[in-house]
Amino acid sequence: MSTGGKKNNNPDPNRRSVIIGGAAAIAGLAAGIVIGGSAFPKLEEKTQVQTVVKEKPIVSTKTVTQTVTKVVPTELQYQKQKVANISQLPSAGTSVITTYMGYPVIIMRTGVKSIGGVGPSSDIVGFSNVCAHMGYQPIVYNSKTNCLVCPQHFSQYDVTVGGMPVIGHPNEYLPQLYLEYDESTGDIYGLGFNRLVYGVYNNVLQAPSSSSSSSGSS
């Protein structure tokens, strides 16, 4: 107790104990942090870089030279073949039955300028002598109408206009024979057909033969 109004400067023992205890606790916590950090060191993260080398395949190119023998077929062509002489066709309305490359043909003198005609008056024409309807042969030349007439079904072809069908069943022209006339000798040559002959798919490849024979008729 204080006497005479003077302050007691002696510290309270209880307060002193509290301060000392708090300081000790703080010191202990700090020491724990330091010790804990030393006891449990931080793990270091290491990054490893791995290099992968891929091997590329090596492509080898080899050139092989090979000799191949190829047989090239000879181009098929029509033949130039004598089929008549103008002496066998002395006047209009006369005709010659013959063959061209083995195909039966008929050569006629129409007396009028005709499509594909040769000779001095361009009136000598030639046609396949096989009907384009069903292949009947021979067909007959009618000099009055200038038509080739099939006796089987009476089909008729106008020989002055390229063998155009004018009567009957045919739905196509009669194959015409291209002709060439030699003025110096009067010979008449066949050069080929302008369309397929009845019954074949290739006139040259399927030609029966290249021989020809002729006989005159009127």
Automatic annotation (TrEMBL):
Key words of the record: 2Fe-2S, Iron, Iron-sulfur, Membrane, Metal-binding, Transmembrane, Transmembrane helix
Pfam families: Rieske
Keyword Transmembrane included in the entry's annotation: yes
Keyword Hydrolase: no
Membrane-crossing residue ranges in chain numbering: 18-40
InterPro entries: Rieske_2Fe-2S, Rieske_2Fe-2S_sf
GO molecular function: 2 iron, 2 sulfur cluster binding; metal ion binding
Residue ranges constituting the Rieske domain according to the UniProt record: 81-188
PROSITE patterns: RIESKE (PS51296)
Identification of the protein by name: (2Fe-2S)-binding protein
The species this protein was found in: Candidatus Acidianus copahuensis
